[in-house]
Predict the 3D structure of the following.
Amino acid sequence: MSEGLPFVAGDVFPDFELPDHGDNRRRLSELVGDDPTVLQFYRGWWCPKEQRFFRRLVHLQDEAEVAYARFVSVSVDASTVSAAFRAGLGARWTFLCDEHRAVVERLGLRETTDTVNEPFVPAVFVLSPDLRVHRAYNGYWFWGRPTAEELVVDLRTITRKIRPDWDAPTP
Amino acid sequence: MSRCWLAIADAAPKDATAIAELEDVAGARAGVLVAWSRRSKPVRNALRADPRIVDPAGPAGWASLVLVPPGVRVAFDDLAVQQARRDVLAHPRADAVSTLLRDASHFDGAITLARGEEGRVRLHDDPFARVFPARMLRLGPGIIGAPPAPVGPTIERYGSANPWPWDRFG
């Protein structure tokens, strides 16, 4: 699943800083905090595949909002565009904006076949709080993207590992 | 473990961590907003808040203060309170927000803060004001922090004794 991506399961994802949809500077490690996190890179608001995949994530957020997991989405869209796209989707998580394409190059995640928009290659990394990649999904082809069920399994696996009280305390 | 407590008082107490003068929208003095960083409750009407919203060096601005009326008990997990938390995440407008707690199970209010004179405009659609009426107050300098916006989509508290959106266990 992770073929073709510069980061695979077991790697520590590089920390980076970008403006969010409200134009506030945010650091990945601060956003992840102590929770399992779905880190999604997407082409931009204009891509039909992204629009469809976001509907999957928006549906999943209704579970994630009570499960102590975080979502972060990253694109080359400007903050105002990301804010509008986020609002239209009904997404309640943080969008990061690499409008000047500094991070896309640093991470080696530029989609080289799109020389017009120079976007991120679509990819999803499920991260542990220490930024270690639990699983990587290459979404260049739509079927490479994780299903909601796969994300649930990934988030469950990380949660079980990091929560000392996963086995509910009993008398 | 230190906790953050907020209360409105007539005058500034000596043991406060941060204090700001309060005025109502007509410009009449409305007391002071006091913050304490300490384990025990400092005064009877103090409520717990996310400590990140307090900055003793913070500028002047505005507060939308929602308090549950006396005698009313609302569960923190009440659907209206849940939806207000979702709305805060979906439409971020303010510089800082915290639910206010007296205990581990009830919603006792919320404070939403916006820096600067124009901040009042951004507080007009405070989601918590749909649960109970909000009181709009002008805040002097000395209390409004600038915490990072909640990451989302979590609406749950990290431990029932902690105010939302504080986002770490322990």
